[in-house]
Specification:
Elements lengths: L5 E3 L6 E3 L22 H20 L5 H9 L5 E8 L3 E7 L1 H4 L3 H13 L15 E6 L2 E10 L17 E7 L5
Parallel strand pairs: 4-7
Antiparallel strand pairs: 1-2, 3-4, 5-6, 6-7
InterPro entries: DUF3768
Organism: Paracoccus halophilus
Protein name: DUF3768 domain-containing protein
């Protein structure tokens, strides 16, 4: 089980315990801020989130306009595009907002692929170092994507977000005004 007080040095990959956010690696003496010493939990979640998002590129071609139209006609607040399983261990779904759906299936597919390929993380987009939020640009439009980590029944937040068997990921792609 991962411990919230275990950190990883970005310079040498040394894992070590610390009561507070470290600024120096006890092994290689590298110094830095929180981005240089992520917690082992955040690093694990980031790797899982990256793997999950990468799989979205495989799903994008199968998304269909009919599903968008039906959900828009019904006035849905969020539109589930697909359920995605990455290997046997990472489960979840991808949803878009009505504003996204209103742009059409080609735009949505491009947004899903852009989300899958995004790797631009900064202090603004990734303050927790878990790769659960990002900004992308599709056809000149700025979009946000975020990954929510829910319990297996999607009734609340996951109590063990680094444990794929207890976590259901929900990727939401939206316009900034819809957040």
């Amino acid at each position: 089980m991962l411990d919230l007080n275990t950190y990883v040095c970005a310079a040498c990959a040394h894992e070590f315990p610390a009561e507070f956010q470290p600024r120096r690696c006890p092994k290689c003496c590298a110094m830095g801020g929180s981005r240089d010493f992520p917690s082992a939990v955040a690093l694990t979640i980031a790797q899982q989130n990256d793997r999950y998002r990468a799989a979205l590129a495989l799903v994008a071609p199968r998304l269909c306009q009919e599903r968008l139209d039906i959900a828009l006609d019904a006035g849905a607040a969020l539109i589930q595009l697909a359920t995605v399983t990455v290997a046997p261990d990472l489960n979840g779904r991808i949803v878009v907002t009505p504003g996204m759906a209103g742009k059409g299936i080609a735009f949505v597919r491009n947004a899903v692929v852009s989300c899958a390929m995004d790797g631009n993380f900064s202090d603004f987009t990734d303050p927790y170092l878990d790769h659960s939020f990002g900004t992308i640009e599709v056809e000149g439009e700025r979009l946000y994507w975020e990954i929510g980590l829910y319990d297996a029944d999607c009734e609340g937040g996951s109590l063990a977000p680094a444990d794929p068997s207890k976590t259901h990921r929900v990727v939401t792609i939206m316009f900034p005004l819809e957040r």
